[in-house]
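Sanity check record (used in CI):
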Amino acid sequence: MVSDASGEAPAQPVTGTGVTTRFLNAAWGVSLVAGILTLVLGIVLVAWPEATIKVVAVLFGLQLLILGVLRVVQAIIADDSGGTRVLFALLGVLSVLVGVLVLRHLLQTVVVLALLLGMFWLIGGIIEFVHAVGDTGSGSRGWGIALSLLTAGAGIVLLVWPGMTLLTLTVITGIWFITWGLIVTGMTLYLRFAH
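Expected output for DUF308 domain-containing protein:
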């Protein structure tokens, strides 16, 4: 084994047969950027919850568009079953669709925004759960299950209480983005650099 200047063997990506492991190894930079951007967005939302709905809607819409493109790419490069690819493609299309709707109607009510985000997070959480449970070859199966349950839970909260104030919606979403960003960033770094 070749060592670097410090005498230690360089970190190698985790190998595995799961689509999440293969995707994060193949496009780890994109996953890392998505995780970090989501984390930063969450911090901004929690730090300045009085932001106007227009700014919050633009940030939500952009984040959904980025994640949608990421999921479509994941569906394209996955060499798993057709069902897994279809689920990721549907999640990507749904994410892009909700992102475009949010950006198109910036002055929509908080209730509509909460319902759109709630539906996206609930459906996305369910799809991620199905994928994580079936992804037996992945070193990140537990992380995937935890992330999917948190995503679905955040969606349920928004669907149960869609009339919450913008301040409450912003803080809840910010906390969720921080959690999601930390998990995705940690999972990406672990799968990329764990021995």
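The chain has one domain: 19-193. If this sentence no longer matches the regenerated tokens, the check is flagged for review.
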